Amino acid sequence: MPLPNHRLIHSRFEAHHRPVSEAAMTVTGRLLRPSETGVRDPATGTTTFPDPALIYSGQARIRANSGAQGMQADRIVAVGGYLLVLPAETPVPHVRDVWVVDGCDGDPSLPGVRLRVVDVPRSGLSWQRNVGCDIEEPINRRG
Known about the structure:
By secondary structure, the chain is mostly beta strands. It has one helix at about 15-25, and strands at about 25-35, 40, 45-50, 55-65, 70, 75-80, 80-85, 100-105, 115-120, 130-135.
């Protein structure tokens, strides 16, 4: 129990840890938001979708997760096979957004990989934005 009128966590905790977290971000890429609305061509029977919106472009960190489902607050949550760590100031991703890896200092096989966002946990104390992702599977969109 903290002393009265004292914070349990120092007020500069986040400011101290943000540069440390961002220094470990060795991946560059783009966070894209695919459009949900397409335009159907009745003559050909195909639906075309506009290019995804760019939400963020910059540095990140990726690490493998267990990829299992878990319980949190009596709710089943998807943990995702990968943890994508973005800078804290990054706009909040949405489920189904896509992270496209453009470059990676530590793993030359990572560029070109596309990760689909499956979980966006929130926190009152945040020096980085953690995002649960899975490898993006091709989607067959039918109109």
